[in-house]
Amino acid sequence: MKQQLSLLLTAFGFFTRIPVPFKVAFSQENLNKCNRYLPLVGLVVGGISGLVFYLSALILPQAVAVMLSMITSILLTGAFHEDGLADVCDAFGGGWTKGKILDIMKDSRVGAYGAIGILLALLLKFTTLNEIPPSKMVQVLIAGHMLSRAMAVWTMHSLNYVRDDELSKSKPITKSLQSTDLMIAVGIASLSLILFVDWLAILVVLPAFIVKVLLEQYFKKWIGGYTGDCLGTIQQVSEMMVYLSLLALFTYQASEITFPFIK
Fold it and tell me: What pLDDT does 170 receive?
């Protein structure tokens, strides 16, 4: 239990700005194994963001409450994943060789592709969440943050880490994710679907998984694997796909459209 607690605190210490109550000695081994608990990080980030939305929506319009919840999630993570998305947009938008892509990805400056990419992503996220029924918002935010982090963990298992130098902005999260770690992460993330008490909610996983696979193929084609920024991109895009899928589900349930194979 002490070891597992150490892994959990390592995950919170590395992936969030949330103060860790106990001093945890850093080690590459712990950093490699803590990925199994990334969905729990998503549970806390999504839960706190959902709480901010709920309290804000009591006295403010939904659009303002959604924006405050988004700001909360960014503050909690230090824009860790958003930064990865911006870097990937810059690198793959401006680089045409593996070396050039990796060089641009290391650059801390944000270019036009990165600025446009992150702006459109945040706008899409805001617009989608603003259409979610307020009574479902907390569950939606928790599911989005948990499932998207499980997709990023899955990518660590599917692809190889491609940076072996000391010039990367951050050390590799893991180079050899074990199947046990992946199963634990997916199992924890799947629990978020229980919040909807509706078997159709399972369908939201499929679009996120398809997008994850497509992005993996794209990354493998151009750079032969993944970097930390690629994982941030997987998390952000998967999170948006979960929100879009749930919005589509709620819209379908509120409409009069019926399909013979779905009761």
Answer: 47
